[in-house]
Amino acid sequence: MKAVIMAGGQGTRLKAVTGELPKPMVPLLGRPMMEHIILLLKENGFTDICAALKYRAEDITGYFGDGSRLGVKLRYKIEKEALGTAGGVKNCADFYGDEDFLVISGDAACDFDLRSLMEKHRAGKAAVTLALCRHPEPLSYGLAVTDGGDFIRAFIEKPCWNRVVTDLVNTGIYVLSPRAMSLVPAGRPFDFARELFPLLMERGEALLGAALEGYWCDVGSPLSYYKCCVDALEGRLKLSIPPEFLPASSGALPQPEEKSDASLDCPCRSRAALMGALSRAMLDMGADYADGIRLHRQRFDMHISPLPESSAIRIRVSSEDAEFAKELALSAGELAQALDL
Fold first, then answer.
1. 197: CB partners within 8 A, 6+ apart
2. What is each CA distance from 115 to 33, 47, 171, 266, in whole angstroms?
3. Three state DSSP letters for 187-233
């Protein structure tokens, strides 16, 4: 089966984490996010892949090559000018030809059953089948309103609360038929959600929505990036994690190990304002606020507190893995830097 990975993004909001890296190359537990996506595609039977690139394309092509290292066949299409979501995929027309194919972002965190999405699309013979997921705080996403079954009747883009009529979020993962893509003009910007999908609905084409079980996160900010790292370490996001990020195991009975501490001081404009931003950011992660911000997990303990003598905060991470403690403290520092507005 064929898949197109949209991987042209610069990741402006993630600059504190990415630096000059293209967003799909941002590491998530030892592998670029796009590598996790390729491994997910391979696991689900999508081994013929085309990546639509623009920003610093050579960083991506140089790392992945022809894909053989990962067990897939990988080719590339590089945009000279930004073509939008649908326009960038249309640029891959000579790759997908007359076959139904899957589209996925190279900078999302996801463990969906993508094979089932393709099967649903083929059974429904729809122009497009969209992967949807339920989200309790859907304000930052495009929503899909269904008819109570599988057919999508309307889209609502990033609503305020008084316009929220569903918890079904459009994940940006689609299975597309060639007849849908035939409506996308070649060589100019065109968007899936704002242009192609309304056009298909006007023409009476069926758009199916599949609410998938599993984990999905649009990694668009330092906070969402940091949360994905923690969720992957704790098993909520199922990834193929390199051995050095896994807890050590052996046949012997576990012995208590000494914990290593990593500490980082982060200068800031206002200690109180930054602590407030971090408190709000870590609320759904189960943080304790009795003494600064404390986050307790099986693999680590984190304590963030303002320094009394200077305009800075201190981040301390305790873990049995000294390297892991250091990396987690650094990534928390990057989050703090991005929130220090």
1. 128, 155, 207
2. 20, 12, 16, 45
3. CCCCCHHHHHHHHHHHCCCCEEEEECCCCEEECCCHHHHHHHHHHHH
Q: What integer pLDDT is reported at residue 247 of this predicted model?
A: 59
Of 194, 218, 242, the residue that ends a domain is 218
Give the residues across from 91 on adjacent strands: none
Position 323 scores a pLDDT of 84
pLDDT at 184: 97
Same domain for 266 and 212:
no
Strand partners, 217: 109
**Which CATH number goes with the domain that contains 315?**
3.30.310.50
Distance CA 53, CA 49 (A): 13
Q: Which of 218, 252, 279 is the last residue of a domain?
A: 218
31: how many CB neighbours lie within 10 A of its CB? 18
Q: Are residues 63 and 173 in contact, defined by beta-carbon separation less than 8 angstroms?
A: no
Amino acid at position 210, single letter:
A
Q: Residue 18's pLDDT is what?
A: 67
Residue 246 has pLDDT above 70, yes or no: no
Residue 239, classed as helix, strand or coil, is coil
pLDDT at 244: 66
73 is catalytic: no
Choice among 2, 15, 23, 158 that is catalytic: 158
Better-predicted residue by pLDDT, 53 or 142: 53
19 or 316, greater pLDDT: 316
